[in-house]
Amino acid sequence: MTEPTASAPARALASAIVDTLVHRIGKDAQAARPHDWLAATIFTLRNEIIERWMESTKRAHAAGAKRVYYLSLEFLIGRLLRDALSNLRHNDEVAEALATLGVDLAEIEEIEPDAALGNGGLGRLAACFMESLASLDLPAYGYGIRYVNGMFRQRLDDGWQVELPENWLAHGNPWEFERRESAYFVGFGGEVTATADGRSHWSPAEAVEAVAYDTPMVGWRGKRVNTLRLWNARAFDPIKLDQFNAGDFEGALAGQTRAETLTRVLYPNDSTAAGQELRLRQEYFFSSASIQDIVRRHIQYFGDIRTLPDKAAIQLNDTHPAVSVAELMRLLTDFHELSFDAAWDVTRATFGYTNHTLLPEALESWPLPLFERLLPRHMQIVYAINAKLLREAAKVEGIDGRAIAAISLIDEGGERRVRMANLAFAGSHSVNGVAALHTELMKKTVFADLHHLYPDRINNKTNGITPRRWLQQCNPGLTNLLSEAIGEDFRDDAAKLTALAPFADDAAFRERFAAVKRANKVALADYLKDAMGLRLNPDAIFDVQIKRIHEYKRQLLGLVETVALYDQIRSHPERDWTPRVKLFAGKAASSYHNAKLIIKLAGDIAKRINADPAVGDLLKVAFVPNYNVSLAERIIPAADLSEQISTAGMEASGTGNMKFALNGALTIGTLDGANIEIKDHVGDANIFIFGLTVDEVAEKRGSGYRGTDAIDRSAELAQAVNAIASGVFSPDDPARYRGLMDGIRDHDWFMLAADFDAYAAAQRAVDARWGMSDAWGRSAVLNVANMGWFSSDRTIGEYARQIWGVM
Ligand code: GPQ
After folding, report:
1. Residue 553 catalytic?
2. Which of 281, 438, 548, 620 is catalytic?
3. In sequence order, what DSSP letters do the residues of 206-259 get, joined into one string?
4. 356 among known catalytic residues
5. Do 564 and 443 sit in the same domain of this protein?
6. Is the minimum distance from the CB of 434 to ligand 1 under 6 angstroms?
7. Residues 113 and 240 in one domain
8. Ligand 1 atom with minimal separation from the 655 CA
9. Are 446 and 545 found together in one domain?
10. Positive or negative, the Cα torsion across 762, 764, 770, 771?
């Protein structure tokens, strides 16, 4: 079967894959289906990964190295085969081997399910960080939950979002290793008693077992392989036989069902606190298992728990794992016999906390009675920490009663609640924001008083993205062009991309650069034609807004401007319009009414515009269903224009913005989050910035501004809002969008109307620049050249040196 033309290594690899297929999957090459080939390929590749994994672990152990622990309720890692192949530089070899077996590597890569254990930016950041940690050869573990159902699959029924469960484990998961020996007891409820020697003893009323599942995280060139350890909940006693024998079958299995519920599903909320008891249980479950595992490893390797901060840096990815602070305090005081003060010193020196949003609805706090019922010992510890914290605060000049109330771990206004952000802040030696503006706003708003108390604690770590997945893997055409132009150095150090800058003035290079972009657009157009029957003109501007649907991200601004443009094209067909394709994609939280309505509106607008012969190829609109990491990998390399148009002050950083610019799209965006730093790097001339600043937004909100003020002044805006409100795009239900449009007229909290004219003007500036293809090409090349700084290697380097002390 093996073709004689294949190289010797490819032939050896092919026979290894077939061997795996037969002995591990139990099928021969004739019977194998695509999923079998996928599994056989992964299992074969895994052998090398395992060896590097063990070598990495041993090396860290032998060096007595300090380890980084990244605790996150979300890891949006996506597919892993291409990532591993590409990082190990085995792509060509494996493709060749499979070809000799009549199997197309690209085809089997396509059927690998996305591991979507996250909602959006926060979860994807965690995945980029895991890859960079391994690439920088830093010993690190990610800790999270092995959700059986990750992010839901989005289907559009008549344009309405419907959520379907995504069963990513349906065909098994060849990447994971169950570690039955790494299992921990996690308790809930019950009561706390004092022991004879004056310590506390917690007797939980309920307990589950946390079992580890490890996935290898392969760094660039396979230098290091780290571990992503995800916890699965299991009942200690999976079946109560006495009950079963007595005929109560459901009751006999109830414990197992209850345990499994814990790790069953990811809460599909992005930047909003879920607030349900199950969520607090998930948070404690994975925090407790992770902290126990970290403490166990430390004792095993180093013996003395008091040296923990020298050997472990634990980073809290937002407040979701913040209860870890109380959990470590519990282990140190109740089991390792440290005094409260000694335990507190160890705890603070070990933890760092990253804040990802200022949105009040995202700040987690738990009703005190719930917290106390579920975690009675932790409640005591929180009180004790609070007493210490407030004693310290009272000594500081300028801290009055109001400030004390703001610093307290307990919110006493109304129903008493435990504030997780304050707990994370107090329990960490470092608190960081994710972009420069965001970090400054943290100091001025949510954490103003804690910042006054601990002025050295808040620091900035601007987010980054891994250039392996978000350039090399998703855009091989551009990557090859870059290596022809500037050599291979940028593959190991994205900062070396600056060598590309002189090529911005090289017309022949710009032409090749444009050809790569066009080929990516053709590939995307082909895909969307198959997937949703769309016909797109690859010479139009591909204008893209893909991210979670959220009012502050202002997909609605993009849609209203689309309607205005549509009206302009119809009213002035004689003008020289620039053809545009407007692509939208993203999921809405299932309970977020307006976000779901915005999705429906996008579909309604698309239906009307795409069918109108008066605009023809000049304007096409599409809402692409089921946005996920894999879809992003297809769309981003094909984008010309990246929409980053959040209301200033509301997007902590954004990371999609970085992916687009790195792939040569120009950004149209507000002075928000990392857009500001992108502007500083790519240069004002190579980005389209518009809209109110943070201060102007605050000023308007404070001065009784209403959307109607702006609508009355803008004929274009008024026309678009009125058309949507009156049912032009929803003839089947003319009132459908009245409420949504009234929201803009009445409050316009997100400043859509206030920013509209500036946004529309910026879009016309985009058209003008597109018309000067040399100028556009020059800007696009300069974006790629100057985006290396946004590599997550740079970000992780900063964390490593400035927070973790591991570099
Ligand atoms: N982010 Cl709090 C999320 O994706 N989910 C969340 O629950 C919170 C924040 C995002 C944030 O909105 C983006 O601006 C950031 O770029 C991203 O986190 C990573 O820091």
Report:
1. yes
2. 548
3. EEEEEEEEEEEEEPGGGS-EEEEEEEEEE-SSS--HHHHHTT-HHHHHHHHHHH
4. yes
5. no
6. yes
7. yes
8. 16
9. no
10. negative
Question: What would the pLDDT profile of 717-769 be if each residue is shown by its tens digit?
Answer: 999 999 999 999 999 999 999 999 999 999 999 999 999 999 999 999 999 99
Active site (annotated) includes residue 548: yes
Rg (CA), the chain: 27
- 26 in any annotated domain: no
Annotated catalytic residue, options 419, 469, 547, 582: 547
Domain count of the fold of the chain:
2
Between 599 and 258, where is the model more confident? 599
Minimum CA distance residue for ligand 1 atom 13: 654
Closest atom, ligand 1, to C-alpha of 362: 2
447: which 2 tokens? Answer: 């954490």
Boundaries of domain holding 330: 49-463+796-804
Mean pLDDT, rounded, for 692-720: 97
Ligand 1 contact, 362 CB (< 6 A): yes
Active site residue 521: no
Nearest-CA residue for ligand 1 atom 18 is 122
C-beta separation of 124 from 629 below 8 A: yes
What is the whole-number distance in angstroms between the Cα of residue 121 and the centre of ligand 1?
5
Closest atom of ligand 1 relative to the 434 alpha carbon: 20
Residue 10 domain-assigned (yes or no):
no
- Where residue 327 sits, what CATH number does that domain have? 3.40.50.2000
pLDDT tens for 382-434 read 999 999 999 999 999 999 999 999 999 999 999 999 999 999 999 999 999 99
The Cα–Cα gap between 704 and 163 comes to 38
Whether 321 is in the pocket of ligand 1, judged by its Cβ within 6 Å, is no
DSSP letters for 700-722:
HHHTT--HHHHHHH-HHHHHHHH
Please tell me if the CB atom of residue 139 comes closer than 6 angstroms to any atom of ligand 1. Answer: no
Whether ipTM tops 0.95, in short, is: yes
Active-site residue 439, yes or no?
no
Can 659 be counted among the known catalytic residues?
Answer: yes
**Token pair 């070809």: residue:** 99
Which of 73, 74, 270 has most ligand 1 atoms within 8 Å of CB, for mutation?
270
Euclidean distance between CA atoms 722 and 747, whole angstroms:
16
- Dmax over CA atoms of the chain, in Å, equals 90
Q: In whole angstroms, what is the distance from residue 539 CA to residue 520 CA?
A: 12
Q: Verify whether ligand 1 is closer than 6 Å to residue 463 (CB atom).
A: yes
Residues 245-283: b if buried by 16+ CB within 10 A, e if exposed: eeeeeeebbebbeebbebbbbbbbbbbbbbeeeebbbbb
> For residue 263, is it within any domain?
yes
Please check whether residues 407 and 479 belong to one and the same domain.
no
408 and 531 share one domain? no
Asked if residue 30 is part of any domain, the answer here is: no
What does 268-286 look like in DSSP terms, one character per residue?
A: --SSS----HHHHHHHHHH
Asked if residue 540 and residue 500 are part of one domain, the reply reads: yes
Contact of 623 with 606, CB cutoff 8 Å: yes
Band (1; pLDDT cuts 50, 70, 90): very low
524 with 426, same domain? no
DSSP element (H, E) containing 594: helix 593-610
357 CA → ligand 1 middle, Å: 6
Q: Are residues 574 and 697 in the same domain?
A: yes
**Which amino acid is located at 730 in the chain?**
S
